[in-house]
C-alpha cells in the first residue's frame, strides 16, 4: 500500500464529506499544506493520524488502505442528502421535491471538485448506472 493510494482515498473521503482541505486540516489539527501532501502521497501518514482522520470522516481505517480504484458496494452512508452541508453552501428553496434537492446537491458538489475529482465522479456515476442496469436486466 503506497502513500499515494492512501492519499487518494483520503481525498475521496474528504470530498465525499464536502469539506475543503482547509476545513479538514482544521479538524485534524494540521496545516492545509500538510493535508495536501498527505493527499498527494508526498508525506507519510502515521497510524495514529490515520485513526484520527478515519474517526473524523466516519470511515473505517481499512477504507484508506483499499486500492484507489475501489468502489464501495453498496454505497456507504455518505449518499447525497446525508452528507453534512459544507460551510457556505447554498440551501435549496423549501418545498422542492427530494430528487430535485439531491440533484442540486450533486451539481453543487460536482462544481466544487478539481478536474481529477470531476473525472472520478463521472466514472463512479457510470459504474453505478451500469450496476443498476445490470441489476434490473
Structure in words:
The chain is mainly α. It folds into two domains: 3-65, lambda repressor-like DNA-binding domains (434 Repressor (Amino-terminal Domain), Orthogonal Bundle); 98-136. It is 61% helix and 0% strand. It is built from seven helices and no strands. It has helices at residues 3-17, 21-28, 32-40, 47-56, 61-65, 98-111, 115-136. The chain is globular.
Head-to-tail CA distance between termini: 37 Å
Q: How many individual helices?
A: 7
Mean pLDDT: 78
The CATH class assignment of the largest domain is Mainly Alpha
CATH fold annotation of the largest domain: 434 Repressor (Amino-terminal Domain)
CATH superfamily of the largest domain: lambda repressor-like DNA-binding domains
Q: How many strands appear in the DSSP assignment?
A: 0
Biggest pleated sheet: none
Q: What's the overall geometry?
A: globular
Strand content: under 5%
Quickly give the CATH architecture of the largest domain.
Orthogonal Bundle
The level of helicity is 55-70%
Radius of gyration: 16 Å
**Which structural class do you get from the secondary structure elements?**
mainly alpha
Order of helices and strands: HHHHHHH
Low-confidence stretches: 70-87
Task: List its salient traits.
137 residues, mainly alpha, 434 Repressor (Amino-terminal Domain), 2 domains, 7 helices, 0% strand
Summarize the structure.
By secondary structure, the protein is mainly alpha-helical. It has helices spanning 3-17, 21-28, 32-40, 47-56, 61-65, 98-111, 115-136.
